[in-house]
Write a structure and sequence with these properties.
Layout (H helix, E strand, L loop, with lengths): L20 E4 L23 H17 L3 E4 L16 E4 L2 E4 L10 H8 L9 E5 L10 E4 L2 E6 L5 H10 L8 E6 L12 E6 L6 E5 L6 H10 L4 E2 L2 H4 L7 E2 L3 E5 L3 H9 L3 E5 L16 E2 L13
Parallel strand pairs: 1-2, 4-5, 7-8, 10-11, 13-14
Antiparallel strand pairs: 1-15, 3-4, 6-7, 9-10, 12-13
Bound molecules: arginine (ARG).
Amino acid sequence: MTQTTAPLTQTSAQRTATPRHYLMCPPTYFDVVYAINPWMDPSSPVDTAKALAQWEALRAAYEARGHRVDVIEPEPGLPDMVYAANGGIVVGGRALAARFTFPERAAEGPAYDRWFDTPEAEGYRRLGEAVETMEGEGDLLLIGKLLLAGTGFRTTPAGHTEVAERLELAEQGIELVPLELVDPRYYHLDTALSVLDDGAVSGETVVAYYPEAFSPAAQETLRRLFPDAILVGAEDAAVLGLNVVSDGLHVFLSDRARDYADALKERGFVPVGVDLSEIFKGGGSVKCCTLELRPAADDAASPLA
Ligand code: ARG
């Protein structure tokens, strides 16, 4: 009998889920009453009850896969507070709250900062709010020892510098990689790039991105750092398909991003499609609704069974 050996391809990496800690904010006061990105149209109505149901389903999808979800109290008058990813950045147990570009969202920075003083936030060191413009995980995506840092529309280069200093990135062995965004529809890094696998377990770092959202120099940087990246097309980008959360195995993403979901399967991931059609009206999707809280290295978790 002849034995066939499967060719070693990009698909051979073993994907493994690791348990995560997420902070989310229910869309209790979600609405589109101003337009600070091209997706927002204040004249088109928002169904808040539907937004809440969709958000609950996302939260349940995380919990069903063993992830811990904490919830921050939504505040009236802050319709974008549902986009928890923008509230700050937490790396190595250090939590720095955001400083928003637009006055409409300014009060969200202190709200997220205060959360780090609650009992649920035990184990995270509260560093306060950023002084420079910095929109949290909207623009700052950690992958292993790299912090990918978007700029161009929201977070500024001065914001990057402040993040590197206050989160003590060098001491943690983390390098900040600035990436310039050029298309106003993809105003935050997390609308144009997904972190899928940090390589901690699989040994293979994987990202996906929409190249046209980046400046030529940023595209060059991405090609150099991630030669095997999944390149996502205009159609999937335009449903904010790249705005995903990955636990290393499951990739939670918009159920509208069909080709991207197929590409994920080919690379050994398990896409989990979710419907966030109401929350999409504010210009965000799965990742926008999710702030990842990363404990200090010595508190880090081992893979999910
Ligand atoms: N309306 C919000 C804004 O323009 C949406 C933020 C989406 N969040 C994200 N992580 N991309 O600021």
